[in-house]
Structures are given as C-alpha cells and as structure tokens.
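Milestone M4 deliverable, item 7.
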Amino acid sequence: MFGYGYGMGWMWLWGLLALAGLVVLVFVIVRLAAGGATRDHARDPGATGARVEGKRMPREILDERYAKGELTTEEYQERLRVLGDNG
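Output delivered:
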C-alpha cells in the first residue's frame, strides 16, 4: 500500500552511491579549476627552488658560462644581480 515492496531494502545503496558520485564529481571539478597545486610546482622550478628533472636553473647556466670564460666578471656579477641571486 505505501510502496515498501521487495526492492525497498536496497534503496539506501543507490542513495549512497549517488552521494559518493556527487562528492567525487565536486572534488574533480574543484581540482581542475584550481589547476592542481602539485603540477604547478613541477612546471615552475622557481616556485619551490627545486630542480625539475631535465631542466637547469638560470644560476647553474650562468655559473657554467662564467666557468667557460664566456662572461667577464663584471658581466657575471651584473647578471647575478638581475637574477636577484647575490650568493
């Protein structure tokens, strides 16, 4: 009479699955909208100061060019100052 038939015992499962799906969907949308924090750091090595595999930091390139004699001491110091790296 009130619709509490044979399948009513499993209705809670469908509701739970729908709620879990909604939570996952919201999480994915928020994650995509934010761009993913870990991916941003991987793309921008300056963000953490870490070196990304296969990429050299500007200071390393500058040091290498100075060591090879491609830059004078004045040019090296000026470029360090421009990079904001006095150490």
